[in-house]
Amino acid sequence: MSEGKEKKRGLFARLRAGLAKTRNSIANGFASVFSHSQIDDDFYDELEEILIEGDIGVRATDEILEELRDQVKEQHICEPEECRQILIDTIRNRMDIGENAYDFEDKKSVLLIIGVNGVGKTTSIGKLAAQFKEDGKKVLLAAADTFRAGAIEQLEEWADRAGVPIIAQKEGSDPAAVIFDAVSAAKARDTDILICDTAGRLHNKKNLMDELRKIDRVISREYPDAYRETLLVLDGTTGQNALSQAKEFRDVASIDGIILTKMDGTAKGGIAVAIQAELGIPVKYIGVGEQIDDLQKFDADSYVKALFTVSEDEPETDAL
Questions:
Q1: Per CATH, domain 105-299 is 3.30.2010.10
Q2: What is the DSSP pairing of strand 193-198 with strand 109-114?
Q3: Nearest Cα to Cα of residue 69 among 90, 52, 94, 96
Q4: Residue 298, CB half-sphere, CA atoms under 13 Å: how many?
Q5: 3-97 has which CATH code?
Q6: Which of 28, 223, 239, 273 is deepest in the core (most CB within 10 A)?
Q7: Judging by beta carbons within 10 Å of its beta carbon (0-12, 13-18, 19+), is residue 37 exposed, middle or buried?
């Protein structure tokens, strides 16, 4: 096996392990529901309960089951077990993030990372920085979360760990001023990717919106040619609360993608499906552990396989 395939297999193994609680919950339910003698209202009701308990969400569940009903009618399916793969394929197709999801990696880019305190925002920035550097990119961090006590020091620690430079000012400084300095440094140093930490004071939307607007104006004025990407960090263990946060942040910022953290050990792994269905915002990264490479690019095939495949001995597919 090539080094690339071996690495991908290792990443999948960690993803699968991280989603174990969700998978076991869903798998146990599937074992019961697909053993039904017929496809009837009880069959669909049980499927609905299983998917919602996995935090796939009411809207996503309704859409998935509606598509399943249509497929059952069109294909004249009579056996419940025949619905299993159709259901899995339906969910996979909904999770496709498109071919251009990571275009920013190959351009001069500015990444704004937003999210409330405690979701793993700073940690995610550090992991991304380390991965980009390993891929040969010149990376610079900007510590624009200047109001949370310890935020700057925490990001400085991650910058040191990742081996990348950081632009920071003292606590309480104007975040837009930090971004101005960081953009100037990024251009002067021919940086590939500038990653900006931002404050997550969602409880005061007006302040957050004003701050993000100032930052946006600075970047637009000083670095108009940069590719822009805004990623929202959400804590996967909070399930539907994460979805509520995403809706609130969407009201104050244009979001290009989601970083879903702390997915290892949660029984709420279906939340990625809910976010995509409810908001149409792709999950671009998923965190399944504490190590730097445990923050993975989201892959619909790997995710669905990790969520629904019971046997670890099942052979890998080319998609993985």
A1: no
A2: parallel
A3: 90
A4: 28
A5: 1.20.120.140
A6: 273
A7: exposed
d(CA 200, CA 175): 12
166 SS3 class: strand
Structure tokens at 200: 């997550």
Share of the chain above pLDDT 90, in %: 50
* Cα(273)–Cα(304) distance, integer angstroms: 10
Name the amino acid, one letter, at 186.
A
- Tell me the pLDDT tens digit for each residue of 40-81: 999 999 999 989 888 888 888 999 999 999 999 999 999 999
Taking alpha carbons only, the member of 4, 263, 315, 24 closest to residue 124 is 263
Any idea what DSSP says for residue 189?
Answer: T
- With pLDDT > 70 as the criterion, what percentage of the chain qualifies? 92
Q: Token digits for 160?
A: 């040191």
Mean of the pLDDT values across residues 279-306? 87
